[in-house]
Design a protein that fits this description.
Length: 330
């Protein structure tokens, strides 16, 4: 018994030590539970914060997507990258309580997505600026087009007015040309009348065949074989409208067949009939000295031989016939 009593302190000490260890373990266990609970609460809060941040980013992204339906290829690529990260973030955050590693991965993805969204917003801002610039350019072009349209309308009106003025001028021109033509015709008629009025009139026109004696005296003949020259004489009557001076006169001989006697080598030529405009042949020409009084003048024509027959002799001045007669050479 004495030996047993001596071990009692050791048992008491052992029990106390066990109680102490149990208390320490219980305290540590409670402390670890509290720390784990706090850690879980922190992770939960972080996950909730990440989910809120994710939702804000997605709302902002969706707002820009709605405001900018037409996207270029660069924005489409950014949108596809964001949507891929969106799917991965939703998998990490919507699968229940995420671990620290998963939360960190989600946080990195959200940060990367935030960068993409900022880049997306910057690209959209640049696109909007370009669109605004294009709108301003379009407005300027529209204003210029309207100005050009107005100018074109005014020009068209001016062209129409000028065309009408040209038509009026052409009508006036035609009227003036018609009037000028009429005046010209009247002038020509008056000139013709004046010219015709100034033409000398021949009376007592006579034609004969003549030959010459040795002393130069002319003898009238009737036979063609005796004829050396044909002489045409005529009396010029006074004409108060004709000025005194030299007057060109043409003599025209035609055969019984109406053929003109025409020998250019001996001075024959052509003239225009003032009444008909016809070109006519004359046999010979000469100049008479008109003194404003009645005088007798003679013109001669000589050729090698004279065919028998009747000849017509005409005297012309300025395209008008002064008189005519006939001669018959047997």
């Amino acid at each position: 018994m004495a030996g047993s009593g001596n071990n009692t302190p050791f048992f008491v000490a052992g029990i106390l030590l066990l109680l102490l260890l149990s208390g320490i373990l219980l305290y540590n266990n409670l402390s670890m539970r509290n720390q784990h609970t706090e850690a879980l609460e922190v992770l939960g809060q972080q996950q909730a914060d990440l989910e809120n941040e994710y939702d804000r980013v997605m709302e902002e992204l969706e707002m820009y997507k709605q405001e900018n339906v037409e996207l270029d290829s660069t924005l489409v690529q950014i949108q596809e990258d964001v949507e891929a990260k969106q799917a991965e973030i939703e998998r990490l955050l919507r699968s229940g309580r995420a671990s620290r590693g998963e939360l960190q991965q989600a946080r990195d993805l959200i940060a990367s997505m935030r960068y993409d969204v900022d880049n997306y917003k910057q690209q959209i801002a640049e696109l909007q600026y370009k669109n605004q610039q294009l709108d301003r350019d379009n407005q300027t072009l529209t204003a210029e087009k309207e100005l050009l349209t107005t100018s074109n309308v005014k020009l068209q009106e001016e062209v129409t007015e000028k065309a009408a003025a040209i038509v009026d001028l052409e009508d006036t021109k035609r009227t003036l040309e018609s009037e000028r033509s009429e005046l010209s015709e009247e002038k020509d008629m008056l000139t013709a009348k004046v010219t015709r009025g100034q033409v000398l009139q021949a009376s007592a026109v006579r034609a004969d065949g003549v030959k010459y004696k040795k002393n130069g005296k002319e003898i009238e003949v009737k036979k063609a074989r005796q004829t050396e020259k044909i002489r045409v004489c005529f009396d010029v009557m006074p004409n108060p409208l004709a000025q005194s001076g030299g007057k060109d006169v043409m003599m025209r001989l035609t055969t019984g067949k109406g053929e003109p006697v025409y020998l250019p080598a001996q001075g024959s030529g052509t003239f225009e009939n003032a009444d008909t405009g016809e070109e006519m042949r004359f046999t010979t020409a000469g100049t008479i000295d008109y003194r404003g009084q009645q005088d007798t003048y003679c013109m001669y024509w000589q050729q090698d031989t004279y065919p028998q027959g009747e000849y017509t002799a005409e005297v012309w001045q300025d395209g008008y016939m002064m008189g005519s007669t006939k001669v018959d050479l047997k």
